[in-house]
Amino acid sequence: MRFSFRYTLGHMVKRILVTGGAGFLGSHLCDRLVSMGHDVVCLDNLFTSQKSNIEHLLGQKNFEFVRHDITEPIMLEVDEIFNLACPAAPGHYQYNPIKTMKTSVLGAINVLGLAKRVRAKIFHASTSEVYGDPDVHPQPESYRGNVNPIGPRACYDEGKRAAETLFFDYHRQNKVNIRVVRIFNTYGPRMHPYDGRVVSNFIRQALAGEPITIYGAGTQTRSFCYVDDLLDGFLALMNAPDDLPGPVNIGNPVEFTIRELAEMTVELCGGSSPIINAKPLPADDPLQRCPDITLAQTRLGWAPRVQLREGLARTIAYFRSIDLAKFRAPTPNF
Ligand code: NAD
Ligand code: UDP
């Protein structure tokens, strides 16, 4: 595993809580931490995930699954916390927007309270959505964003912004040792096939020979980071000196239009799906998004390595290997 030597040689075995640990990113993080020998508690309410993501870990003696909703407090004795619990796909977080806001805000209060009580270092998965529909491009951490506070994406964007505020207030007021990462669009194996996100939708459609559904003109851009690269960034930030609480952008700075992504997906899947303009651009859908990763490069020595073509091929191989009938769409929004 790349970079693993930096984190495995001479490290202490820690008790680590991963909230949202059964999800797409959380399950990969649990894999890494378990393989490094840490004692991992995976907490999840399985709203947007299923146990199959962590099935292979269930028998391991240094892994434990706790079904819990992070909007409720929990008492655990841990050394580190990774807070990932939150629906992440637009269809998922808009399904029950009030619950999404509660998960971000009450969830942050509960994990920060826990971190304060047991003096644990705590990492928070924030998002490029804090920049909204950006008028600065690419987006550095110093950019304060352009978010509509009352639109359909606000439950997620503003929830994540409020969570960042809570993290920095607990840091200033209670000296909690925090790490905040702003994640840009990430993809890879174990994305939920029915999450409605662009990569999973396009691959599922291309493999089934169905039309590829572009929203709007397809000229809006995103920058796609492969999950392994993202996790290298997570661990580098968590193990960085304490004077770097963040926020730190982690993402791949190579930008693609959604149409380019559709064309590449069809090509790699080897099908002949037509690419159609399925519906107008959803409200507040950002027109462009690309991280400025100077801070991660200079302070963490981190940069992504996996190019979109290679990462997409790996993700397509995963989608070919799964039985879609075993996946329940968590919400009707896809
Ligand atoms: P995911 O939906 O696969 O994982 C989220 C996990 O959190 C799921 O397992 C879900 O069941 C769990 N969860 C949701 N609400 C919960 C609650 N109230 N209590 C306990 N568990 C709960 O999404 P993901 O892509 O793995 O995202 C993980 C984190 O990273 C999220 O916080 C998300 O906002 C952030 N993020 C992801 C991306 C991305 O591109 N994947 C981009 C930006 C930020
Ligand atoms: N999108 C699309 N077709 C789809 C799903 C999404 O054109 O089937 C677009 C969506 O409107 C957005 C971009 O792809 O402009 C990325 O959407 P996604 O839901 O993956 O994440 P976002 O970055 O918007 O949170």
Sequence-ordered SSE layout with sheet pairings:
Blueprint: H1 4-8, E1 15-19, H2 24-35, E2 39-44, E3 63-67, E4 80-83, H3 90-93, H4 97-118, E5 121-127, H5 154-174, E6 178-183, E7 186-187, H6 198-208, E8 212-215, E9 221-223, E10 225-226, H7 227-238, E11 248-250, E12 255-257, H8 258-269, E13 275-279, H9 294-300, H10 308-321
Parallel strand pairs: 1-2, 1-4, 2-3, 4-5, 5-6, 6-11, 7-10, 8-13
Antiparallel strand pairs: 9-12
Helix pairs in contact: 4-5, 6-8, 6-10, 8-10
Nicotinamide-adenine-dinucleotide binds next to helix 2, helix 4 and strand 5.
CATH superfamily of the largest domain: NAD(P)-binding Rossmann-like Domain
- How many distinct domains? 2
Structural class: alpha/beta
- The portion of residues forming beta strands comes to 15-25%
Largest sheet: 7 strands, parallel
What is bound: which ligands?
A: nicotinamide-adenine-dinucleotide, uridine-5'-diphosphate
Radius of gyration, taken over Cα atoms and rounded to an integer in Å:
19 Å
Mean pLDDT: 94
- Whole-Å distance between the termini? 34 Å
The CATH architecture term of the largest domain is 3-Layer(aba) Sandwich
